[in-house]
Amino acid sequence: MSAIGGDLVGRAKKFRAATKIEHHSVANVGEALERWSKFLQEHETTSRNDCTHLVFDNYIDWWMGEKRSFCLAIAEDNTLEKLYACISQLYDLGIPLTLQEKQTPQVRFAQDIEIWGLRDTAVQVEELMSPERSFARLLGKIMGEIFKKESLDAMVFDSTGYSRTKGVMKTSV
């Protein structure tokens, strides 16, 4: 039984609107969720100075207890490796964590694009970010003008899905 009580598999299904949570590499899903919930809760911190990872958009998730800080302190190497294992296994189970690293001064620029859709449809990321699309070309041109280095790197992360707060689909890149 978890510190938050109840069936974590059922809780995860409810929070993630999933019909099943399973993967061939996980023999006992309930035990795995119990272990990861305990690990994540043990590493929650209320101190912004100690915080290394944040829960994206303060998303209330299946693993959280009643007192949520939305901040994790993952400092030691072995703890970071354990977090990576947690992230990997939960991704395999179809319930990826909604974490982000705390930004450091080395991050020069991050662009967050959100497009609110309808109850069951959203703009596909490929419609925005494919190199042949006008939006991606315009964004690339603007970034090239702002950051004039030849070795400019870009990464696109897609977290498109259903917004429980608004009740509609949302394209997020």
What is the rounded distance between the termini? 37 Å
Shape: globular
Strand content: 5-15%
How many structural domains does the protein architecture include? 2
Main sheet: strands, sense, barrel: 3 strands, antiparallel
Q: In summary, what is this structure?
A:
The chain is an alpha+beta fold and 173 residues long.
Keywords:
three-stranded antiparallel β-sheet; 6 strands; globular; 173 residues; 2 domains
Describe the structure.
With 173 residues, the protein is of the alpha+beta class. A hairpin with a 4-residue loop joins strand 5 and strand 6. The chain has 5 helices and 6 strands, in the order ααββαββααββ. The longest helix has 16 residues. Strands 2-1-3 form a 3-stranded antiparallel beta sheet, with no helix packed on it. It has a 3-stranded antiparallel beta sheet with strand order 4-6-5, with no helix packed on it. The mean pLDDT is 87.
SSE blueprint and pairings:
Blueprint: H1 8-16, H2 29-42, E1 53-55, E2 71-72, H3 77-92, E3 99-101, E4 114-116, H4 125-129, H5 134-146, E5 161-163, E6 168-172
Antiparallel strand pairs: 1-2, 1-3, 4-6, 5-6
